[in-house]
Here is the input.
Amino acid sequence: MNEHQPHAAPEITVSDRQEQPTAVIHETVPMADLRDFFDRAYRSVMTAVQQQNVQLAGPPFALYRGMPTDVVDVEAGFPLAGPYPGGGDGAVVAGTLPGGRALEATHVGPYDTLPQTYGAVMARMQADGLTPGEAMWEYYLTDPAAEPDPATWKTLVVWPVA
Here is the structure.
């Protein structure tokens, strides 16, 4: 693909989401350390969830609070079929993905091009007169270990409306 060719704008849909129980590790992380944090968090959460015999209900996600700067307030983990009872290594805690109205867009491509998709979602919110919520999250639909080509990675961006 020609690098001067703009990405096709993602299709943006409006959804009405149900509240979703999660198991997460919640930290404030320097942007440069996000990948290491995700690796550690997903491993720890997976181990804790398996020890508690709780059923996963979807792919790994990361929830961001506020606009990311050099540091990010982030939760990383998995959606669950039922509430997380706690236990495990102590860093893994019960969380929730909020219910309500949200805009969603499927981003295709490497993670470093995600800001383009966020920009498109923000433009749609402004065009529709909506106020973006404080938190937004990403479901990682592609496992980079299984699919080495970043151009094919799929990430579902969910940005609730305030």
User: Anything to note?
Assistant: Residues 1-5 have pLDDT under 50 and may be disordered. The first strand starts at residue 12 and ends at 17. The radius of gyration is 16 Å.
